[in-house]
Give the backbone structure.
Amino acid sequence: MAVTTDAATADRVPRRNLGVLLGRESGIIIGFLILCAVFAWLNPAFMRVENLLDVAQQSSITAVLAIGMTLVIITAGIDLSVGSVVALSAYLTADLMDRGVPVALAILAGLGCGLLAGALNGLLITKGQLPAFIVTLGTMSLIRGLVLIYSQGTPVYGVPPAFKSLIGGHLLGVPIPVLIAAVIAILAYLALQYTPFGQQVIAIGGNEEAARLSGINVQRRLVSVYMISGMLAGVGALILTARLGAAEPISGVGYELNAIAAAVMGGASLAGGQGSILGTVVGALIMGALQNGLTLNNVPSFYQQVAVGAVIIVAVFVDQWRRRKVA
Amino acid sequence: MTEPLLLEMHGISKTYPGVQALKGIDLQLRAGEVLALVGENGAGKSTLMKILSGAVQADGGEIRLLEQPVQITDPRHTRGLGIAMIHQELALVPQFSAVQNLFMGRELTLRNGFLDWTRARAEAKAILARFNLSIDVDRPVSQLPLAIRQMIEIARAISSGARIVIMDEPTSSLTAHETEDLFRVTRSLRDEGVGVIYISHHLEELFHLCDRATVLRDGALVGTVDIANSSRDQIVRMMVGREPSEFAKREHLEPGEEVLRVEGITRAGVLRDVSLTVRRGEVVGLAGLVGAGRSELARAIIGADPIDAGRVLLNGREVRIRTPEDAARVGIAYVPEDRKGQGLVLGMSIEANVTLPILRKLTRRGLLRTRRRREVAQKLVSDVQMRPPDVRRLAMQLSGGNQQKVVLGKWLGDNATVFILDEPTRGIDVGAKVEIYHLIDRLARAGAGVLLISSELPEILGLSDRIGVMRQGRIVDHCSRAEATEERIVQAAMAG
């Protein structure tokens, strides 16, 4: 009897749970913590500080790309070209350095290459009035082809140590790629929530026509968003090159899918108007932790692919289910 | 004549956290009648119909169909029970033809399992003939006028055995002619013994079409009356709980100098050499039938659609407006006709929506000043008398009236001098309408020029200082308020 009364009152009082404290990213954060707990239980070495930093480092490229992808997805777009842009930017930067161009210039060239690719995507989508999926599917193949032609299919190994320690080194014990990803995440979060640009981007994704009629220059915003995505692919390329100490024309294959997965797990809606930088970062961490934890437990890489796919689907399923319950 | 009771809802109650949405509502629908369900937005009409269609569960009360108590717990039940809801947003597959839509979910097949197109086509024609519709049944319905699509949907409901048809604002996007066709079809349904529940804000329609009216106010039943023995005023009084004042009436002000001048705007096939002026403190009404080019003119002025010729002058100086961004910058505010599709970002808060055009003004060193933004949003929302004034709610959670207030409110923060309002009161309740009329008056008094597009003649006649009538993309008549009569405007809009 007492139990039923309790249950009845519990229903009436609005429940205060962790979800209220953490906001709408609570689901994915809890999921991430559970995942970590499971790996820690399977193998205590997972929770060692060096290993956690490894997870963060392994997630950094996905996180950087996924942040750009989140902005794109919020506008109801998609950018399938980022994996190819990573390859082109990485190869260009490494090749320039190999030919003796100063490191700073080579870095600028890599970032500029990403910006240009993004501008091309953005202009084709807005001025050409083509679907983002088609445009970026096309540039994905086109840019991949350019790298292969440019490289003749051979890798570049001559990456100077100065570059490796600048981008791939450590600062106060933390891998620099992690710091880069963190800074980009904070900037993106601020831009999205606290600048007119970010609010306008969300509005465009929510209702493009209403945004246009409110005096927002929709085309310019969209081009900017694809340029940001392209430039972040350039950043990812720098991290990749520094970590590998080389650049391959076939690198970055499938990166766009990891980025999309992280963004969508983090709560971005492919229909536009919704997305969270915090959620996306946690999504990228989940991908990194999965890879790291499975390897640590000697799961063969073929099986890892199956696990990653399953986790993506389960994560989005739980998120959707939770939202429906709230609504 | 006591027709059998098709439907009886008795003592229906529904409580949402913190609100009692419905308080013991009774509703009876007889076979062969059209029952109007009226009330202001938020009165409980939609909730009641959602309960009937199974989308929402009642907390208390009973529903009987043909005297038998039924439990409706799932929208899928209603089809089996013979209840069909015709939504504002139509539930047809646009790419499908009339045949495909009519038999969707109950496709006719040959013995070998393949679709029986010959029989389906013949039956579709027979069904549509009952509604006096002779259309190409193989064309995708997206190529048919909205009114025809609506009738196909009604035909589908009836042919799949519906005895009760609920129509929610079915005429909101129809022309006068199409409305008449819909009425004809509705009357023939009634004569065949179907019961129709008809929800509309247009009181005139109720008097043309309905037999009885059930009136709700604040979630409670006010009463059910025979239309034949009631007056318009009586029903309005029941809806709003107070005497209907003269709804749309504005004092004429002495206008100031010219603020907007449009010269010779032409867009091939849409607008032909349209010129007009609006002075400060003046409301210029633009009347005409749907499709006469009024919305197209508004969109041309603000640069949402390209023009082939013509120019726009603001305060006597020519301004180049090629995009809505240009229009907003020079101080022309535009409230579009389709507030959900074009006016609001439904997934964003009220605060985000009303500050959308002025975000740049709310920043310091590039970052948004969130507290300032909230203050500004609250001020704008109180300027348009939105209740409750909680700016954190999402636009999608608001009633039609409040949504319209948000769309209007977002232009009040930007010192606009010209307001182009396209059907600002369509589909919203009487109370909110009156508040929007007051707001229009306040805008004019504050020295703005208002171009008011409306399909409701009392609104045009009551609010405008001058009136232009459009037909086939041009202004065909132009008169002062003193010269304007309903007959003159209707004649100008329809002639030719």
Summary: The two ends of chain B are 45 Å apart (CA to CA). Chain B touches chain A at residues 302, 304, 323-325, 327-329, 334, 336, 341-348, 352, 356-357, 359-360, 362-363, 366-368, 370, 410 (CB under 8 Å). The first strand of chain B starts at residue 5 and ends at 16.
